Amino acid sequence: MKEKKMSDVQRLKQDYPWIQTPLVVGAPMRLIALADLAVEVSKAGGIGFIGAGTDTSSLSTYFQHAQRLLGASALATKNGTMPIGVGFINWGADIDVAVSLIQKYRPAAVWFFAPSSTASLMQWTEKSREACPETKVWVQVGSVQEAMGAVRETKPDVLVVQGTDAGGHGLAQGAGLISLVPEVCDAVETYFSRDGGAGGERPVIIAAGGIAEQRSAAAAMTLGASGVVLGTRLLASYEANISKGYRDEVLRASDGGQTTVRTKVYDTLRNTNWAATHNARGVINKTYFDAMDGMGEEENRRLYTEETNKGDAGWGVENRMTTYAGSAVGLVKEVKGAGEIVREMRGQIGGVLDRAKAIL
Amino acid sequence: MKEKKMSDVQRLKQDYPWIQTPLVVGAPMRLIALADLAVEVSKAGGIGFIGAGTDTSSLSTYFQHAQRLLGASALATKNGTMPIGVGFINWGADIDVAVSLIQKYRPAAVWFFAPSSTASLMQWTEKSREACPETKVWVQVGSVQEAMGAVRETKPDVLVVQGTDAGGHGLAQGAGLISLVPEVCDAVETYFSRDGGAGGERPVIIAAGGIAEQRSAAAAMTLGASGVVLGTRLLASYEANISKGYRDEVLRASDGGQTTVRTKVYDTLRNTNWAATHNARGVINKTYFDAMDGMGEEENRRLYTEETNKGDAGWGVENRMTTYAGSAVGLVKEVKGAGEIVREMRGQIGGVLDRAKAIL
């Protein structure tokens, strides 16, 4: 057990030589995590991801911006890769554009999520590896079944295990990290130790969903993860590409299990075309209340569209703009620099484990 | 922080002198956790609870049975209390019967859950403390709001913080322990350090929901809990009062986020009278599929009632008997003695924390 974990850390440091451990990753939040946020996370010793999501139209610009920001930083990289990653929502992203940009900009990692099929995930993986063999493949999963499907079919370098407390999109049906991470770890362990893993290398497991600070990060490590992903926490960073109204709502909301909900409602009115298998967690607002009270989709969509003209005033419980956020939103109370968030959290994880040990 | 935790452990050892730490608690699973299970958990250095739930009709018998089982065990107790607890689902339990039995049998703890109102919870608490001042009051909550309401109004000795991965009943809307425990800890901390706690004593915080083994137990400690509750894991103990069909289904189910679901469906067909605020997590079966496919309540109830005659063959995905279980069900693969489960888990928590520390 310990040997396996040690080698996971060694692999991480080998593949992403600029990082410090425990590894903190910046989630590829769609069109919110752009070059500024990704670079700041990496400069702080984490791995920052640009969130292209379904939209590759401006990705080239984001990569160029990241190159400029990274210019003077002298982060140690491997084989000339760019020391950030990029995330795609596979079902909606243009594979040809994505692959050509992977080839051109050589990000250290790609993060795949929600492919339309296993065949599609295999295609993305193969094409990405062809385009830039040094770019590591991260695959986000939300169940044991998804995890083992991804492991068997694509041999990912990293499995991002997302629990149902995550903000934004994920499996509609799921479990929290507390039970999901150990079960995925055991399934992966069994596959590689008993079945040999079909010649592939065991993926590093990284946890996402509900982790906003050092206690939850430490918990994820005890559950079996070798690193953690921050999403909601980074919404309240200076570098996030986010409206003030959205950010203020993240700061305001507390008791996240009660004030956020996983639902299709916000997708529906935004016409996002997500499959029935997925929904998204966001702060409950008027759109959601109206939908629960039986308002029809069209009327709700019309009211939402009107609200988009209200600017920052469109966010809040009594308003309609969508605030995707995880159930840890109540632990986010202050806007800080992304680098400070990453460094502070990383520096406190050891102390949390020590205190837990001390009270046994 | 460390001092507070040290004193929580000291308080636990003072109030329940037979325990060993880290504290492992056996959940008061309604009519499944009876004297055999409760006593076995306590004998292993945990705190076992009898699950009276809504039904106090045989509780006297259970207490008597527990007395016999405890007779030769010589567990160190405090002021002659019985070294087990008893759990009530307050909205449905008879307060007069409950209080008279608390007075007579003096359990070390009572566990309150789902009162019909704050006033009712206050009444239960006051009457229980009057009947037996040595009996500690545990209150189960599922949100920050519930937690602070309970703390302010009833000054519980223990707050049991239940995450949404829990099996059986809980708040219909909730968060996993990964975000819920830290937020509750912070709210309690603020109330007592900044606001003085209105003269009350800070409750010990214990985590429930999705914890089936040492990794999740260690995670709960890092999140801020001073002890953990086992529910689903103990369904697969020799001492659980459970049908073979139910237990086999717990052993069979895996990938708990996918194969269990929080729903009102199982309550509806069993006419349990639970309020809309609560639902329950159970393994998905034919009842649930039919309900999702639009089958009416009456027909579904009729088919369920028929199935109750099938005995153990009534459980399983293609059948209709309800298998309440948490999302950690996939980590439960073997029937063991409850004492062995508790001792094994407790003995491994320190090692889990050490390994997490070693890979930083």
UniProtKB/TrEMBL annotation, chains A, B:
One of its GO terms (molecular function) is dioxygenase activity. The keyword GTP-binding does not apply. Keywords: Dioxygenase, Flavoprotein, FMN, Oxidoreductase. InterPro entries: Aldolase_TIM, NMO. It comes from the Eukaryota. The keyword Oxidoreductase applies. It holds the Pfam family NMO. CDD domains: NPD_like. This is Oxidoreductase 2-nitropropane dioxygenase.
